[in-house]
Amino acid sequence: IGQLAGRSLLHLLDFTPQEIEGLLDLAARVKKERIDGRRPQRFQGMTLAMIFEKRSTRTRCAFETAFGEEGGHPVFLSTSDIQLGGKETVEDTARVLGRMFDGIQFRGFSQRTVEILAEYSGKPVFNGLTDDFHPTQALADIMTLREAFGTTAGRTLTYIGDGRNNVAASLIIICAKLGIECRIISPGELQPPADLLDTVRSFAAAGTHVSSDPADAAGSDAVYTDVWVSMGEESQQQQRTALLQPYQVNASLMQLAGPDCIFLHCLPAVVGQEVTKEVFEGSTSRIWDQAENRKHTIKAVMLATMADPE
Ligand code: CP
Ligand code: NVA
After folding, report:
1. What does CATH list as the number for 137-290?
2. Measured from the CB, is residue 165 less than 6 Å from ligand 2?
3. Statement: residue 68 has pLDDT above 80
4. Which positions does UniProt annotate for carbamoyl phosphate binding (predicted)?
5. Active-site position among 175, 182, 261, 266
């Protein structure tokens, strides 16, 4: 994956299946290094700007620990502290950060912001979640699927709930790239945008199926859900709860999905809403592995783009 040097990760549409598989192989390698107690220092002397417009536990901690433990210096910048589109344009902030840092992580609202940061900083920029996409999450999700089943091509991942959010979009893309059958089960109003479906169907090795019937989860290798109300959508709480109630992941849905089906959730979760406590805490749940894998996949992305993975 030498060809990834200097690249940004804004969304996964830009990456080939081989590049994605290469990142997942590297993530498995760095995970094993840690388990074996090795502590390479591949980010020594490097700095990473980490801009957050929205809150984060996993993404912030994954970037910060992955970069810091290998000798890099991550700098946390919340938008209540820095000028970003406030007193200074995003373009100008990007040019300044590009002169000072080796890379930039951005979590926030607009996908356009992360694109401008990449365009104007001239450094690798990593999308740590926008309204539209959550690409580093999707890498960790597929790493978790690999660990559970050995292989991923030909597997079936069912995402049930809000099919229009960032997590759903990135799952649709990564599954299409890697030949994983992706089923999106959502009420009509919350199904994925047609342009995204057209895009992935133009290159998909496996199908992307959209339906509004929870029974279509039958025969899945993984059932995945996310919160019903994403960050920035708080005003829609009531309406979403009414709309999505039939799409809760509970024991009967998991039973219908199949005996070896695993449960995935990007977290944070509202337990009792999109998933019952029984499933969340149950034996089929792989959510803590999934959260841990955020760190290994994010480290792999930073190594491949900013440093020397060897
Ligand atoms: N899954 C995820 O991105 O978690 P955080 O919002 O805590 O970063
Ligand atoms: N869809 C959620 C994911 C959080 C990691 C949100 O955007 O809030």
Report:
1. 3.40.50.1370
2. yes
3. yes
4. 56-59, 83, 107, 134-137, 266-267, 294
5. 266
